[in-house]
Design a protein that fits this description.
Largest sheet of chain B: 4 strands, parallel
Number of domains of chain B: 2
Oligomer: heterodimer
Number of domains of chain A: 1
Distance between the termini of chain A: 26 Å
Strand content of chain A: 15-25%
GO molecular function (chain A): iron-sulfur cluster binding; metal ion binding; oxidoreductase activity
Strand order of the largest sheet of chain B: 3-2-4-5
Pfam family, one (chain B): DUF5981
Radius of gyration of chain B: 22 Å
Number of strands of chain B: 9
Number of strands of chain A: 4
Number of helices of chain A: 6
Helix content of chain B: 25-40%
Strand order of the largest sheet of chain A: 2-1-3-4
Structural class of chain A: alpha/beta
Number of helices of chain B: 8
Protein name (chain B): Methylenetetrahydrofolate reductase domain-containing protein
CATH class of the largest domain in chain B: Alpha Beta
Shape of chain A: globular
Domain Methylene-tetrahydrofolate reductase C-terminal-like (chain B): 112-205
Structural class of chain B: alpha/beta
Helix content of chain A: 40-55%
Radius of gyration of chain A: 15 Å
Protein name (chain A): Methyl-viologen-reducing hydrogenase subunit delta MvhD
Shape of chain B: elongated
Largest interface: A-B, 18 and 17 residues
């Protein structure tokens, strides 16, 4: 069990799949508004969260991400009508897989926001960072680091 | 097509425990269409197993490969040079593919990664329903194209039975009474005379009752 001091020192590595039409624009807006958000989230722009497949989320975790957040449009406001609903069901499917293999499902989360919500973007990234910090480093990342160190 | 459903990952983890080098083998045919064992499902399962092994500190090699078909010699031959690198194969093909691979690679443990469910149709996105039981002697010509063998819980050939209520079967209110469907369709076809004819006794020896079945076609043999 990790002690709290280590958890606080731990800087999570989070992959953030952000929809071009909302979350990515919201991140831009947060920047324009000079609102800072945690550097722990590495943003990957996608044309729609409906483009994200289960394998993208799993590969991120397999390659050592401590968490994965998917940020799409508000429900009912997807540019491609249903992309964010499809993303949500895939996120749920990945969370079920994680539960089956003994990983914390909370390492993967879906958020909804609009392009006008710059402060909200900063809020969800902080929320996700806190959540992952509480969960601690991913055991996959730790195992990967150990094998790299051994080599 | 053959419909399969994914096995729970816990069950697959249990099965692969004794082995350290595992090949996840997909099939490009029916199981790809019913999204249980195609290339994509191979990738997802392999990734999930790798995450499991890394997070638990278990050292295993998980390989991935998908064949055009696992129920044909020529495609199964593709992995001939590959199998020596593995201790076991988890096949995501239907039961046919798993068995055919097992027959071909005698000393290689073959573990099924899906449950083979039925012969069915893709009724809606994410919904597959049974349509055929491969009984070996098709009666669809006189039942309005609706199969009483696969769709009637009792396989009644002169129905409906007393359990049919408001067009639904007594086993579940969500299950259509096959004979209600047959009557509705025969009415639409104006062929209710077919319904009046008593079905002859069915030759069940052509079903599973006659043991494993084979089809031999002299005209296509080489």
């Amino acid at each position: 069990m990790q002690d709290t001091s280590t958890k606080e020192a731990f800087e999570p590595r989070i992959i953030g799949f952000c929809c071009k039409f909302c979350a990515y624009a919201a991140a831009d807006l947060a920047g324009s508004m000079r609102i800072s958000y945690p550097a722990s989230v590495k943003i990957i722009q996608v044309p729609c969260t409906g483009r994200i497949d289960m394998i993208h989320i799993l590969k991120s975790l397999e390659d050592g991400a401590d968490g994965v957040m998917i940020a799409g449009c508000l429900e009912g406001e997807c540019h491609f009508l249903q992309g964010n609903f499809k993303a949500r069901s895939r996120v749920e499917a990945v969370r079920r897989i994680l539960a089956q293999i003994g990983m914390e499902p909370d390492r993967v989360a879906m958020f909804n926001l609009s392009s006008a919500m710059g402060p909200k973007f900063a809020e969800i990234t902080a929320q996700m960072t806190d959540r992952i910090r509480q969960l601690g480093p991913s055991p996959v990342a730790t195992a990967g680091k150990k094998s790299r160190d051994a080599a | 097509m053959i419909i399969a459903s994914k096995k729970p990952i816990e069950e697959i983890i249990q099965e692969i425990t004794p082995y350290s080098r595992i090949l996840i083998l997909g099939c490009n045919e029916c199981v790809t269409v019913c999204e249980a064992g195609g290339k994509k499902e191979v990738e997802v399962l392999a990734s999930a197993l790798r995450i499991f092994c890394l997070s638990q500190g278990i050292e295993k090699t998980i390989g991935e490969h998908t064949l055009e078909r696992q129920c044909d010699h020529e495609y199964l031959e593709e992995i001939r040079n590959m199998v020596d690198d593995y201790d076991a194969i988890v096949s995501l093909a239907c039961g046919v593919g798993v068995q055919f691979a097992a027959e071909k690679y005698l000393t290689m443990p073959l573990l099924p990664g899906v449950n083979t469910v039925c012969l069915g149709a893709n009724e809606d996105r994410g919904l597959w329903t049974e349509r055929c039981q491969a009984c070996g002697s098709c009666v669809l010509a006189r039942t309005g194209g609706i199969c009483p063998v696969s769709r009637c819980a009792k396989r009644v050939l002169n129905g409906p039975c007393g359990g049919s209520t408001n067009g639904k079967c007594e086993i579940s209110k969500d299950t259509d009474c096959a004979w209600q469907l047959i009557i509705d369709r025969l009415k639409a076809l104006d062929k209710m005379d077919d319904y009046e004819a008593v079905a002859p006794v069915k030759d069940w020896s052509k079903d599973r009752a006659g043991g494993p079945r084979t089809v031999t076609r002299e005209d296509v043999k080489i």
